[in-house]
Design a protein that fits this description.
The protein is an alpha/beta fold and 284 residues long. It is built from 7 helices and 11 strands. The strands form 2 sheets. Strands 3-2-4-5-1-6-11-10-9 form a 9-stranded mixed sheet, with helices on both faces. Strands 7-8 form a two-stranded antiparallel sheet. Helix 1 packs across helix 2 and helix 5 packs parallel to helix 6. It starts with a strand and ends with a strand.
Length: 284
């Protein structure tokens, strides 16, 4: 079995001007209270707003917490970043080779202007083979690679390196083709979640969607065709936090008592058209 021993999210309804690793530490410090860093086998960090192009933000985090025995790497997976990292950690622990994996998702939105509002956030979770109240039962994800220009950063990669003219045109910021894409993706995500859960004979007691807008939240719930009472709504008006969104929502739902004991919870991640993911956890 694979468990989440602890999970902590940090949501800032603002731009903090903090490096992604510094923002992550606000969550990590809470998660690592009961474990020595040298017991961590790996650090997987999901982020679009990494500290540097090189080295990985996960590597920087390992140095900050003195996790000298961990192998570290970053992933980019849009709004499903936390769940994608969780899926990898699940597989590592399931292999019986690794015992403790630190999963992190952190976003610091210096890459946004005020026209496209995102909020800084981070989440950290310790995935382990040590029995805990939170058991990971199932994770699935899919990717649509045809939606490139829906939401992306036009400049800074090998396809279009940085130029002075590009910076003046704000091409190093996130570009959103149409904000309605989040609402449409919420509908697609709900249909995906329904199909995956049904085909695997899973009936959750609660749903926790990643957040991007009130309209997207409403579309997700309406298309899911379940009572709003079982869909976590605290973050329905929040601005998106990309890879940290679903993890922050999960952390808050665990802390405020929304999730009841002896229940199954579907944590859902979706965003601008690239990825969709659902993780099912049991709360014992």
């Amino acid at each position: 079995m694979v468990y989440i021993k602890s999970c902590k999210g940090t949501y800032k309804n603002q731009k903090t001007n903090m490096a992604a690793s510094d923002l992550a530490m606000l969550s990590i410090n809470e998660v690592l209270k009961d474990i020595s860093p040298d017991k961590i086998d790996a650090i997987i960090c999901a982020t679009v707003t990494k500290d540097y192009v090189y080295p990985s933000t996960a590597c920087i985090l390992a140095g900050k917490i003195k996790a000298s025995n961990a192998f570290c790497f970053d992933i980019e997976s849009d709004f499903t970043g936390f769940l994608s990292a969780l899926r990898l950690a699940y597989a590592f622990v399931k292999s019986n080779r690794y015992k403790n994996i630190l999963v992190v998702a952190t976003e610091s939105f210096y890459i946004c202007d005020d026209e496209n509002r995102f909020d800084d956030a981070s989440v950290a979770a310790l995935v382990t083979n040590e029995q805990s109240d939170i058991q990971i039962d199932f994770i699935d994800s899919v990717t649509d690679g045809s939606a490139l220009e829906n939401c992306y950063i036009p400049m800074g990669g090998t396809a279009k390196p940085y130029t002075k003219e590009g910076v003046l045109n704000k091409e190093h910021f996130i570009s959103i083709k149409n904000s309605n894409i989040f609402e449409e993706e919420a509908k697609k995500a709900a249909l995906y979640v329904k199909e995956v859960l049904s085909s695997n004979h899973i009936e959750p007691n609660f749903y926790i969607p990643s957040y991007s807008s009130k309209a997207a939240y409403d579309n997700f719930v309406d298309t899911l065709s379940v009572s709003k009472d079982i869909v976590y709504s605290k973050m329905e008006n929040a601005n998106p936090s990309l890879s940290a969104s679903s993890g922050v929502a999960l952390s808050m739902a665990l802390e405020d008592g929304f999730i009841k004991k002896n229940s199954k919870v579907a944590v859902c991640g979706y965003g601008s058209g690239y990825t969709k993911s659902v993780a099912v956890i049991s709360i014992n």
